[in-house]
Amino acid sequence: MNVNGTSLDTVLRIGKLVLNGIFHLCVAGLTVYTIWLPITSYTWPFSWHVILCTLGILPLITESLIVFSKQNIWSQEIDRKQKHWIHVILIISIGGLLIFIGVGFEIYRIAVHTDPTVKHFSSPHSITGLIGIIFIINAMVCGVLAFNTQRIYKWNRKARPIYFKLIHNILGQAAYLLCLISFCLGHFIPWFVKNLSDASRITAMIVAIIVAIWSMICAWRSLFSKITFLRNV
């Protein structure tokens, strides 16, 4: 089928590339929006908590999901093996490390806080963030196993590679969603509420939802294909 001499497939491909470009702009804009306030209104050590955790989840871990998409602009010419290395080493490891350090700054801030009513992991933002970190750790462990499935399979024939990949996929998606929920809830803590307008914070949350949906489409497809494969075995 042609549309004025242009195939429908070409139109759809260009449309997906345009949407992918908009997606990256949303990620960049959301990142700058979130870290701008802690930079301009610097407060030790809270600012580092916001900056590092934001950079960890946006753009690093977000890009680790979109790297496998065929429509992703910057990874189209990279082969799948290299994408796995980018996913594991350059993105997940660095992103996870930044989140861990950022949370460490917040734990330290609360530990030395003069107000005894300020407790560790007592808000919805901190609770979802903590659960997200637990999922990240488990996803990383399972990811290492999934990366070495052939060696494990030679040792134990019951340990099929598809199982490790499926569990890694599920845990990774759960971790990402929980971290993004914590990220959105963070915009409603008193510090952000005091310094940012309601409209801008709600807009940021809507953009975060769009980013989450678009970045996880490829992961959802992968999960569906693995479940379908297991059902047909």
From TrEMBL:
UniProt topology in membrane: Multi-pass membrane protein
Annotated GO CC locations: membrane
E.C. designation(s): 7.2.1.3
Designated name of the protein: ascorbate ferrireductase (transmembrane)
Domain named Cytochrome b561: residues: 18-227
GO molecular function: metal ion binding; transmembrane ascorbate ferrireductase activity; transmembrane monodehydroascorbate reductase activity
Subcellular localization(s) per the UniProt record: Membrane
Enzyme class label: translocase
Cofactor needs: heme b
Keyword Heme on entry: yes
SMART domains associated with the record: B561
TM region(s), chain numbering: 17-36, 48-68, 88-107, 127-149, 170-193, 199-220
Organism: Pyrocoelia pectoralis
Domain of life: Eukaryota
InterPro entries: CYB561D1/2 (IPR045150), Cyt_b561/ferric_Rdtase_TM (IPR006593)
Keyword Transmembrane helix: yes
